[in-house]
Design goal:
It contains 3 helices and no strands. With 102 residues, the protein is mainly alpha-helical. The termini are far apart.
Length: 102
């Protein structure tokens, strides 16, 4: 018998078909007529939970406020550092200034 190279695509398709062959008989055997009949559904609650869109809007609003707070903190930090550089505070050491150690 001669040996041939089998491509990866061919191997994966064969594995997929084999898997499908094993799962189909078990699905067909486990499904009974009683299970295929429609089950009575539970009544819907009168006050439904928040919809996906409402939850998404809340998450987006929370992200937006967090972003705004971080941005505001960056701006105030920059303003404070700028003011310190311009002589409004002693946050930074000025050029030519010496510090005496105790």
């Amino acid at each position: 018998m001669s040996q041939k190279m089998i491509s990866r695509r061919r191997v994966f398709s064969l594995l997929g078909l084999a898997t499908l062959g094993f799962t189909m008989p078990t699905v067909a055997l486990t499904t009974s007529d009683a299970e295929t009949q429609a089950q009575p559904t539970a009544p819907t609650p009168t006050a439904p939970a928040m919809s996906r869109m409402e939850r998404r809007h809340e998450r987006r609003a929370a992200r937006r406020t967090g972003r705004e707070e971080r941005r505001e903190a960056r701006h105030t930090g920059r303003e404070e550092r700028r003011e310190a550089r311009r002589g409004g505070g002693s946050l930074y050491m000025k050029a030519g200034e010496t510090i005496k150690q105790k």
